[in-house]
Amino acid sequence: MERRTLFPGRALPALLILPQLVLTAVFFLWPAAQAIWLSTRREDAFGTSTAFVGLENFADLFADPLYVAAAGRTALFCTAVTALAMGAALLLAVFADAEIRGRAFYRTMLIWPYAVAPAMAAVLWVLMFQPQIGLVGAWLNRVGIRWDYRLDGTEAMALVIGAAAWKQVSYNFIFFLAGLQAVPKTIIEAARIDGARGFHRFRTIVLPLLMPTVYFLLVVDVVYAAFDTFATVYALTQGGPGQSTQTLVLKVYLDGIVNADVGSSSAQSVVLMAGVILLSSLQFRFLGRKSAT
């Protein structure tokens, strides 16, 4: 039987949701409106005057080969980070869900990296992979394997992908572990009695029951890789060497703050915002259909 809480009148419910409405208006709606407005403007070189240009900033954006290249790098970056973070988290969650001694300790240790700030995560990876003083980077050069992510774009991209994925593994691990614990044990026992063993049982029984969690984390990880990795990438490589690790969110910062091209930067922000809204809409629609069936 469904239970509902009824409030007398409308003043108290409105008062309860007012803080969230204020935060949404101040930190999302107002900045979004400002970005949309600025994307239709163009400033002179000194920022003393602006002119309305309509959609010209967007037209110039998609005609810019540097922006198209950054979009391709972002797609590669998001795909790699999402695949690594979800794959590693699912594997660790399967092991942590097993009946082993000290599993509570292992679960706690696997969750802790999520509390590390993005910039601090970048510092940790620098201490490991810096070619002169890094534990791993210096060792690679000592054994004859040339490693210097400051000069090699491929190595730099691999480094930022690894750092960003490592930061997200703990978040995914929490959801995957919760999803595994929600799988009815009777189903697992029935599959075991029927002869399903190991990976076959996981692929045919457990994974289908985890698919709502997988779809949710897929969208969350893509959004994370596209937006929340700015501090990690900037602290590690500043988008270099050259532009080999310059993703879209980093280009927004460089064009708007460093190069003072507010119109183009705002247009890029609007494009990114539209992409997130589209991904979120697809997630809610797809998960809604899954839950209805």
From TrEMBL:
Tell me where in or outside the cell this protein is found.
Cell inner membrane; Cell membrane
Q: What is its main location?
A: membrane
Q: Which UniProt keywords apply?
A: Cell inner membrane, Cell membrane, Membrane, Transmembrane, Transmembrane helix, Transport
The residues that cross the membrane are: 74-98, 110-129, 156-183, 204-227, 270-288
Output a single Gene Ontology CC term carried by this record: plasma membrane
A GO BP term here is: transmembrane transport
What is the membrane topology noted in the UniProt record heading this document? Multi-pass membrane protein
Residue ranges annotated for the ABC transmembrane type-1 domain, each copy included: 71-283
Q: Quote the function comment for this protein.
A: Part of the ABC transporter complex UgpBAEC involved in sn-glycerol-3-phosphate (G3P) import. Probably responsible for the translocation of the substrate across the membrane.
**Quaternary context:** The complex is composed of two ATP-binding proteins (UgpC), two transmembrane proteins (UgpA and UgpE) and a solute-binding protein (UgpB).
Q: Which family does it belong to?
A: Belongs to the binding-protein-dependent transport system permease family.
Q: What is this protein called?
A: sn-glycerol-3-phosphate transport system permease protein UgpA
Origin organism is Lichenibacterium minor
Kindly list the organism's lineage. Bacteria, Pseudomonadati, Pseudomonadota, Alphaproteobacteria, Hyphomicrobiales
